[in-house]
């Protein structure tokens, strides 16, 4: 699809659908073709067709909870989640219109549900919607008994009697010797777990049932083909202005969000969005690329562009953002209070930005941690995060003849040692491949480790 067709299609779609405003009496509004309006402070809400739930367009992602060490609980086991700070986040979020909280039994090294349960227990139940997942990735949880045990434990940890939104977690991936189809069968079909969850929804223990998708497109299509039976209430997909048309250029195993979104839209299944910032890569970018956006809207952050883009799609129910710091919470709330959809000119600009970013390829790691722990202690996400950060900041050079080579070399090497301890760097990867089957992005991790290690060695040798 070329840019003209893309803009025409998006404009046509959005012109026929509206947003449910914070005030119930307020009529729905067309979101493309109208003049931009300044935020009024009221959160934008979208409506679930099957239940009438009003869901905040900004969802609180519970994968990066704050820690007492002032970092994210996503990365390490031996850090303490800051419950007091988390409570403050939740209070502020609720007060400013966020009502959707998305967690999982595996987030924050298995601690997210427990701490979110403590934070949300203080809030009247009618003020929040809780989403969690059946994260039975490990083969030891494929039995019916173990999967149900994980499901029951979510109620206990979250301290609730009902789960508002339950997901089959990350369908489309592989596990060990099993391909994606076999993995899907064993996680949800052969053990009767999908039928069990449908029964739980019928009983009211689950209010909405859906799935999140990574990996093999055949599994996405198969799950949607089951819609007549399952009546999916929502589906969670990876979508942003790069993945819309260029997902396969970022990662050959991914699927363009244009296709995923269209398949959901034609079935009237709301889309929940994950990775709106593409693992943080759309929160900052190369300075000359950022300048394009700053010239158009000088006051807006780079991240705000990505969030506004997603708010321009009427079938997007909520956009999940992992918010470690209160500053993140406040800025993201401002972006969607209410949302100011992108104009056609801005959509065209973002497509130009996406194409420019693709000329500087990074590793498509979202920091999900599913590859960890490495049996040899390699900090896989940390290495990728540093490499991508240096690309975004212009500190990766292709040749020692580059104008800023000396500065870039110094920034990369010094930052590498600070970000990743020497014993956990890429040179300690032996290429065993234990991590590969766990990566929802399909990254060939040993090959990337070897590539980055060679790059590091070339930088070190040029200093001799």
Map the helices and strands:
Elements: H1 3-15, E1 18-19, E2 29-30, E3 45-47, E4 54-56, E5 58-61, H2 83-95, E6 100-102, H3 107-110, H4 112-121, E7 129-134, H5 144-158, E8 163-171, H6 180-189, H7 193-203, E9 206-213, H8 217-225, H9 227-230, E10 234-238, H10 243-250, H11 257-266, E11 271-274, H12 287-296, H13 302-311, E12 316-322, H14 326-335, H15 344-358, H16 380-392, H17 405-419, H18 445-461
Parallel strand pairs: 5-6, 5-12, 6-7, 7-8, 8-9, 9-10, 10-11, 11-12
Antiparallel strand pairs: 1-2, 3-4
Helix pairs in contact: 2-4, 2-14, 4-5, 12-15, 16-17
Explain what this protein looks like in three dimensions:
The protein is of the alpha/beta class. The chain has 18 helices and 12 strands. The chain has helices at 3-15, 83-95, 107-110, 112-121, 144-158, 180-189, 193-203, 217-225, 227-230, 243-250, 257-266, 287-296, 302-311, 326-335, 344-358, 380-392, 405-419, 445-461, and strands at residues 18-19, 29-30, 45-47, 54-56, 58-61, 100-102, 129-134, 163-171, 206-213, 234-238, 271-274, 316-322. Strands 5-6-7-8-9-10-11-12 form an 8-stranded parallel β-barrel, surrounded by 6 helices. Strands 1-2 form a two-stranded antiparallel sheet. A two-stranded antiparallel sheet has the order 3-4. Helix 5 links the parallel strand 7 and strand 8. The longest helix has 17 residues, at 445-461. The radius of gyration is 22 Å and the shape is globular. Mean pLDDT is 88; it is low at 11-39.
